[in-house]
Specification:
By secondary structure, the chain is mainly α. About 65% of the residues lie in helices and about 0% in strands. It has 14 helices and no strands. α3 packs across α8, α7 packs across α9 and α9 runs antiparallel to α12. About 35% of the residues are buried.
Length: about 300
C-alpha cells in the first residue's frame, strides 16, 4: 500500500478544484408568499414609505411630462366631458331637481375621473416598473398603490373647479361637503381593490392592458354621469347601487347638491362590504403571486 509523500517544509499542498471555496454571490433575498389571510406585512410597507412617496411623485411628473398644458389637463378634461353630458341631459330631459345640469355632470365626473385614471394606471403599473422590479427588492404592493394615489392632484384640481362653478351658479355651500374625503377614500379603496387584481394578472396575461380601457368605456355609460340614479326604476335601484362607483357618485352629489341626490344607503353599505371583500381577495392573490413577478415580467 503506497503512501502519499508529505509536502516539503514551506510548500503548499495542491487542493482539488472542487474543494476550492466558491465566490460568495452576496446576500440573496428570497421572495415567498406571506402567511395570513392576505399576507399583508404592514411593518415592511412602512419601512419603504419613502420609496412609496417617490413612486407617487414620479407618476405625477410623468403624466404631464412634455405636455403644453401640463396640470391644466386635470381641468380641461372634466370641462369637455361636462359639456357633452350637459347637452345629453338637456336632450333626454333627465330630472335635475332644480340643480343646473353642469353641476350634476361635474359632481359625477369628479369621482369617475379619479377612479378610471387610478384603475388604468394601477393595472399597468407593474409593467411600467419592470426594470426596477427585476433588479431590486421592495414590497411590490407599493407600485399599484402609488399609481392609485397619483391621481389625487388631478382630483383636487377638479374639485376646485367644481367649487368655482358652485359659486358661479350661487349654490349654497353645504356642510355635507366635509364628508367628501370619506367618499374619496372609498373611491381609493374601490380603485385599489380592482387595481391589485389587474396589475398582478397583467404580469402573466398582457391582454389586461387592452381590456381595461374597454371596461372604463363601458363604465362611462353604465355609471350615472349624465343622469341622477333616481332615473333607475326603484325595483332595480338596490342592485344598481351595488356598483361601488355608482354609489360613490351618488355620495358626491348628495354632499354637494342636496338630499334629492342621496344614494341608496343600504346599497352603499353593501357595495362598501363588497369592495372590502374584493380588496382582501385581491391582496391575497397579489401576495401569493408576487414572488414570480421578476421572472415573468
Amino acid at each position: 500500500m503506497s503512501s502519499v509523500p508529505a509536502p516539503a517544509k514551506g510548500a503548499t499542498s495542491p487542493i482539488p478544484a472542487e474543494s476550492h471555496p466558491k465566490e460568495h454571490p452576496g446576500p440573496v433575498r428570497l421572495i415567498r408568499a406571506r402567511r395570513g389571510a392576505v399576507g399583508l406585512d404592514v411593518a415592511e410597507l412602512w419601512r419603504y414609505r419613502e420609496l412609496f412617496g417617490f413612486l407617487v411623485w414620479r407618476d405625477i411628473l410623468v403624466r404631464y411630462k412634455q405636455t403644453y398644458l401640463g396640470i391644466a389637463w386635470a381641468v380641461v378634461q372634466p370641462l369637455l366631458y361636462m359639456l357633452v353630458f350637459t347637452a345629453l341631459g338637456h336632450a333626454a330631459k333627465f330630472p335635475n331637481y332644480g340643480v343646473p345640469y353642469p353641476l350634476i355632470s361635474l359632481a359625477g365626473l369628479l369621482p369617475w375621473q379619479f377612479f378610471s385614471t387610478a384603475l388604468t394606471d394601477s393595472s399597468n403599473s407593474l409593467l411600467t416598473s419592470s426594470n426596477m422590479i427585476s433588479k431590486v427588492y421592495f414590497p411590490r404592493l407599493i407600485v399599484p398603490s402609488g399609481a392609485v394615489l397619483s391621481g389625487t392632484v388631478d382630483f383636487l384640481a377638479s374639485f376646485v373647479l367644481f367649487l368655482v362653478f358652485e359659486l358661479c351658479y350661487r349654490m349654497p355651500i353645504r356642510v355635507e361637503l366635509l364628508l367628501i374625503p370619506f367618499f374619496f377614500l372609498y373611491a381609493v379603496l374601490a380603485a385599489l381593490s380592482a387595481g391589485v387584481w389587474l396589475s398582478a394578472l397583467s404580469v402573466r396575461y398582457r391582454d389586461v392592458k387592452y381590456i381595461v380601457p374597454f371596461l372604463t368605456r363601458i363604465g362611462l355609460i353604465a355609471c350615472p354621469l349624465a343622469f341622477p340614479s333616481t332615473v333607475i326604476p326603484e325595483r332595480w335601484r338596490l342592485l344598481y347601487s351595488l356598483n361601488p362607483v355608482a354609489s360613490i357618485i351618488d355620495g358626491f352629489r348628495w354632499c354637494a347638491l342636496g338630499p334629492a341626490f342621496a344614494p341608496k344607503w343600504e346599497g352603499l353599505g353593501l357595495s362598501f362590504l363588497l369592495t372590502l371583500v374584493v380588496l382582501g381577495l385581491g391582496l391575497a392573490y397579489f401576495r401569493s403571486t408576487e414572488r414570480r413577478f421578476a421572472d415573468l415580467i
